[in-house]
Write a structure and sequence with these properties.
- This protein is α+β, with helices and mostly antiparallel strands.
- It is built from five helices and seven strands, in the order βββαααβαβαββ.
- The protein has a single domain, classed as Aminopeptidase.
Length: 196
Amino acid sequence: MADLVPEYLTFDYHCQFRGAPGARHDPEDYPMFWTVKVKAMMWEDDNDDKGKEVSVGEAHLYTVPDAGIIDLFLTLDAVSQEVANVGEMLTINRPDLIEEMALGGDLLVLSSLRISSKFRGNKLGHTILKAILCTVGRSASKVILEAVPVLAKNAPAEGSAAHELAKMALRRYWESFGFQPAHGDYLVFEDMTDVL
């Protein structure tokens, strides 16, 4: 693990959205899709006065403004299967989570958060998510993520013992941030008081 000072992280936020945000917008265009690229300055030694910018990781997320007052299932179903599954979980399995948002508040769906392997092990994912919640997620009253490892070429097969262990480790990691079980592999975070 390389030494990295969180104060030297740089966040590049990119939002892809067509039209002006609003509840009357077409469902497939309503959620705002964000890409957050995280870089940092690193120095080779004490004599290195310029440093070098390195890629730390990347996050992909959707923000759904006023999620409690729109047809969330229709809206998320129009975007992709991944977020449609979140909409199904919220409207069918855990409608109580959305009912709590009837007076307002945005939904943030963390689609992925990847940390470069050389920086893993020091909870940078927590630092990055906290930064996201303090910026584009300031109005979020709920954050949803699916705690399953990404299936890559050399990753353990889905359903294998190694994959289940990786899933449990990922779940523990996000629970240490404050996420709680929602349904299946989905976790929900609702306590923004410690973040903002």
